[in-house]
Amino acid sequence: MTTWRAPEVDRRHEPYVAEERDMLQGWLDTHRDTLRLKCAGLTADQLRTPSVEPSGLTLLGLVRHMADVERWWFRHHAAGLELPDLYDYSADPDADLNDIADADPAEAFATLHAEIEAADRAVADLPLDHTFVSRKRDGSTHEISLRWVYVHMIEEYARHNGHADLIRERLDGVTGS
Question: Residue 44 and residue 107: Cα distance in Å, rounded?
Answer without folding.
Answer: 11
